[in-house]
Design a protein that fits this description.
The structure holds two protein chains of two kinds.
Chain A lengths: L10 E9 L3 H13 L21 E4 L11 E4 L2 H6 L12 E2 L2 E7 L10 H10 L7 E3 L13 E4 H15 L3 E3 L4 E7 L2 E7 L2 E3 L5 E6 L3 E9 L6 H10 L10 E10 L10 E6 L7 E6 L4 E9 L9 H9 L2 H7 L3 E11 L10 E2 L2 E3 L15 H20 L6 H14 L1 H9 L10 H13 L13 H4 L3 H4 L6 H14 L4 H7 L15 H9 L11 E3 L2 H5 L5 H5 L5 E2 L8 E2 L9 H4 L4 E2 L2 E5 L1 E3 L12
Parallel strand pairs in A: 1-2, 1-13, 2-8, 5-15, 13-20
Antiparallel strand pairs in A: 3-7, 4-7, 5-6, 9-10, 10-13, 11-12, 14-17, 14-18, 15-16, 16-17, 19-20, 21-26, 22-23, 24-25
Helix pairs in contact in A: 1-4, 1-8, 8-9
Chain B lengths: L5 E5 L2 E3 L7 E4 L2 E4 L7 E3 L1 H16 L4 E8 L1 H11 L6 E6 L8 H13 L9 E6 L10 H9 L4 E10 L5 E7 L3 E7 L4 E5 L11 H16 L2 E2 L29 H13 L1
Classes of the chains: A alpha+beta, B alpha/beta.
Chain lengths: ~625, ~270
């Protein structure tokens, strides 16, 4: 037994502690910090922890910089513009007004895409009017239009907002500080616990051990996104409101590309695609003012391929003739990935409780009909700030009752709440297929949520078929056994081998834009992991992993951080490659042993990840 | 018996080392493309100096640490959100370019003036710390010039260890040529130390330290005066990055000999 005295866990007090700095917390802190001081220089209310001072507001962000968020954004920006009435996009890097919108259906130019019979019939009819193997929609439905909106880079937007908040001196934002969990007392939250530092991979004390500090606060604002540790913890402990579920997800993978000099795309151009590389995969391309573009794809949880990979599909998508004519000769500047909570309002958790409130994507704010999340997230942050200001003025405590009345009701009655309600079931059709999904979107959109496509929701792990079944007719069981053996010996995932078998051509790497997955990590994501933190991806039951023949987690992993263990058992996790997208959380074919609503993968609070501020 | 030191650390920001840098010609001379968009970190050389300063201050009660930074204050603010959680210090900020294309003499002048202007700093207790080099400039000249401008003749460069004796004497271990060390004893302050890597790891984030620092960091940034580092005495013939070719392959547990052979073959090809 070691006789070394371990340091004690320290405690600190604040008035409000926020978890995660994204657009929701940006909206919250922007609104709150403007109101904390009265015009006469007196505080709106006195800090309970530092009498005489304005309330002490702290925000902890997991990533190493507040600009390391991932998302290419096109948004109407209604709420953002309300917060910044004089917003001049020219003052923000990588921001521009939307100038042009197009939606294109992409045909399959290589013949490898897995298309159902009705899709093939549609393709056969459309090929006569297609140009560059694509058909642009002659009209974009109102609910999908982003006219009068803006394209933004999440990283640059967060930097811009964060700098102003910090400049006010009325809130502190601390990046590089993952929060492990909420401090729960029954169903009340009393603050947060930061992660331990100076620990080994398993979390055991090591050199420089410092237990994560407990930061106690009267109000904890949870805005840590869809895979954030605090939000996940609350959902596990408190459950979700009756009838709600968080079963629909997507992984968004993107690049920022310096477009070739002769590219004809104009700044502010917004392209959305559907139909290719697989019908279930959607794409986007937004052009920034410096002739760079944010582009990428979404791979949803209802794409039932058990060897899902976003990276290789993104390369095939970029090489589609409709896009390649703009991209050929371009250079990769940045790369990243993130999970998106696609259940929308159906995935809404308890939005408030004693001592806490939920905002942003993790609170189910994304509108799944319009595909809009950033503005809605910002709006929920603003609404919570308005509620908090009201409670401060009335000297009311942050109880569930008071937060329900001041925040939750405000949110429900706002455009965010009303539109979320209309959109709630818009994507249900996709749970049964691409065509019912598209019809369902149209129905919900046109009837404003009045009529929706019926569906049967399934847990993410329940959807994933056996590889043998999915690739029946493409590879024999014997061939698959052989491929598995070869891949396991190399610790490689199966998707490349199986995509090759399915007819996908090899990607001609050019070292500039078409680069290997590992190069994307290094050249685009600049991924790094700080020493002294525990692994944040763990497997609840290693026996389940040892008998798992899909190991979807290794296939989907955006950074190839999870790999097959050549010796069998649970996959290996390499924290130095993790981009913290959280895809492993929902890409697992085995249920959690104690909670079958979740998978066998646990995704906790971790340090490091992307070091790119352009995403 | 402990000593009281007034330790001033000179250090600013450099682009995050993982970023892709591209020199371009700007209105004032060469600059980095998208420099204000690139994430930045505290210059690692200055970081070592800062952590050594904080450690020395802890071991010598009554000591105080200032961080004097010449850099664009918007970017400095972002970096302070990380650094301020590490160790206690008081920030003194001069608002100007932190680019590696600035003139060493002009940078030294701004830093020396900023140090002279620190309220409450006692020059007889002064230790000026900084990076022996910088990640944005390898001139090894700035700290020496700062010392000269402050009239400090006791100067040590490439320092890896400092031990403060009871009577105020400083034992300093410097790197010298040939991979050897030189140990000198200096009778006391003031002195200038350009640090190599030192011996301390990066401290963990401590939120209490962050809260304490930030109360002074924000006012310091707001009060930062513009610094003149226009480089009027400096011209650049050309600026270019070393050529690079990347071929990434991730291999675990490869024998060292095989790795060396493969690298040699790759270089020879």
């Amino acid at each position: 037994m070691s006789d070394t005295v371990q340091p004690q866990r320290q405690e600190m007090e604040a008035d409000i502690v926020c978890v995660g700095f994204g657009p929701a917390t940006g909206g919250f802190l922007t609104t709150l910090s403007r109101a904390l001081m009265n015009e006469d220089g007196t505080p709106l209310t006195e800090s309970k922890v530092m009498p005489g001072m304005p309330p002490q507001v702290i925000c902890y962000e997991r990533a190493d910089d507040i600009g390391f968020g991932v998302s290419g954004i096109v948004t109407k920006g209604r709420s953002i513009r309300e917060s910044f009435p004089d917003l001049d996009l020219a003052q923000m890097p990588m921001a521009h007004e939307v100038t042009e919108e197009r939606v294109a259906y992409l045909l399959d130019p290589v013949g490898a895409s897995r298309r159902s019979a009705p899709v093939k019939v549609a393709d056969a009819a459309l090929k006569f009017v297609a140009r560059n193997h694509a058909v642009e929609l002659p009209w974009i439905p109102d609910f999908l239009q982003k006219h009068d909106g803006m394209v933004l880079s999440m990283g640059q937007f967060n930097q811009w907002v964060g700098t102003q908040i910090m400049g006010s001196g009325l809130a502190q934002i601390w990046p590089g500080t993952p929060v492990a969990e909420p401090l729960l007392n029954g169903r009340a939250v009393e603050g947060v616990r930061l992660v331990d530092q100076g620990v080994d991979k398993q979390g055991n004390p090591d050199a420089g051990y410092m237990p994560g500090m407990d930061v106690k606060a009267a109000l904890t604002v949870v805005g840590d996104g869809p895979v954030g540790a605090v939000g996940q913890h609350l959902d596990r402990e408190l459950g979700l409101p009756e009838g709600n579920h968080q079963r629909e997800w997507a992984i968004g993978m993107k690049m920022v590309v310096q477009l070739p000099e002769d590219c004809e795309l104009k700044p502010g151009t917004v392209l959305h695609t559907l139909g290719y590389p697989e019908p279930e995969i959607f794409g986007f391309l937004y052009v920034y003012p410096d002739m760079s573009a944010s582009l990428g794809i979404f791979v949803p949880s209802w794409f039932d391929n058990p060897v899902r990979t976003a990276y290789r599909y993104m390369q095939h998508w970029m090489m589609h003739p409709y896009l390649w004519k703009h991209l050929e000769g371009g250079t990769l500047r940045s790369w990243g990935a993130k999970s998106l909570q696609e259940s929308g309002m159906q995935g809404e958790p308890f939005l408030a409780g004693d001592g806490f409130a939920r905002i942003g994507e993790g609170s189910g704010s994304t509108n799944v009909l319009t595909g809009s999340g950033v503005d809605e997230a910002w709006a929920t942050g603003v609404q919570l700030a308005e509620a908090v200001i009201e409670l401060m003025r009335e000297a009311k405590p942050y109880t569930k009752e008071n937060l329900e009345a001041a925040y939750v009701q405000r949110r429900k009655k706002s455009w965010v709440g009303k539109e979320a309600e209309q959109a709630a079931k818009a994507r249900d059709g996709f749970t049964t297929g691409f065509i019912p999904g598209m019809l369902g979107m149209a129905l919900s959109g046109i009837t404003r949520g009045g009529v929706n496509m019926p569906s049967r929701s399934r847990k993410p792990w329940e959807r994933i078929p056996r590889i043998e079944d999915y690739f029946k007719g493409v590879v024999s069981e014997q061939e698959l056994m052989q491929l598995r053996k070869e891949c396991q010996a190399k610790g490689a995932s199966l998707h490349d081998a199986l995509m090759n078998k399915a007819g996908w051509p090899e990607v001609p790497l050019d070292g500039k834009l078409l680069v290997s997955h590992q190069d994307a990590l290094l050249m685009g994501g600049k991924v790094v992991a700080n020493p002294g933190y525990a692994d944040h991806v763990t497997f609840a039951d290693s026996y389940s992993c040892s008998v798992c023949t899909e190991q979807v987690c290794t296939e989907i992993c955006s950074g190839q951080a999870i790999s097959i263990n050549p010796e069998g058992g649970a996959p290996l996790f390499d924290r130095e490659k993790c981009v913290h997208c959280g895809a492993c959380l929902w890409n697992c074919s085995k249920p959690h042993p104690e909670d079958d609503e979740h998978t066998n993968v646990r995704f906790g609070a971790g340090s490091g990840g992307l070091h790119s501020a352009e995403n | 018996m402990s000593n009281e030191f007034h330790i001033v650390v000179c250090g600013s920001i450099v682009p995050d080392p993982l970023q892709t840098l591209e020199p371009v010609q700007g209105a004032q001379g060469p600059e980095l493309k998208n420099e204000m968009m690139l994430p930045a970190v505290l210059d690692p050389w200055a970081g070592h100096a800062l952590y050594e300063a904080a450690d020395l201050a802890v071991k010598n009660p009554g000591s105080k640490v200032w961080l004097v930074s010449l850099g664009p204050k918007a970017k400095l603010q972002q970096v302070m959100m990380n650094i301020a959680q590490k160790v206690p210090f008081e920030l003194v900020c001069a608002d100007g370019s932190a680019s590696g294309f600035t003139d060493s003499f002009e940078v030294a002048k701004v830093l020396a003036q900023s140090i002279e202007g620190i309220q409450g700093m006692d020059k007889s207790k002064l230790l000026v710390f900084g990076g022996w080099q910088s990640a944005s400039r390898g001139s090894c000249a700035v700290m020496q010039m700062v010392g000269e401008m402050l009239g400090i003749s006791e100067q040590f460069q490439g320092v890896d260890k400092l031990t403060a004796g009871g009577g105020g004497a400083l034992e300093i271990m410097e790197r010298i040529e040939g991979g050897a060390y030189q140990v000198s004893v200096c009778t006391g302050t003031p002195a200038v130390l350009g640090w190599a890597t030192g011996e301390l790891p990066e401290p963990p984030n401590n939120p209490q330290v962050g809260m304490q620092n930030m109360r002074l960091v924000m006012p310091a940034l707001q009060q930062a005066k513009p610094a003149n580092v226009q480089g009027s005495s400096l011209t650049f013939q050309s600026v270019e990055l070393p050529q690079q070719r990347r071929e990434t392959r991730v291999v675990k547990d490869m024998p060292v000999d095989d790795m060396a052979r493969e690298i040699a073959e790759w270089l020879n090809s």
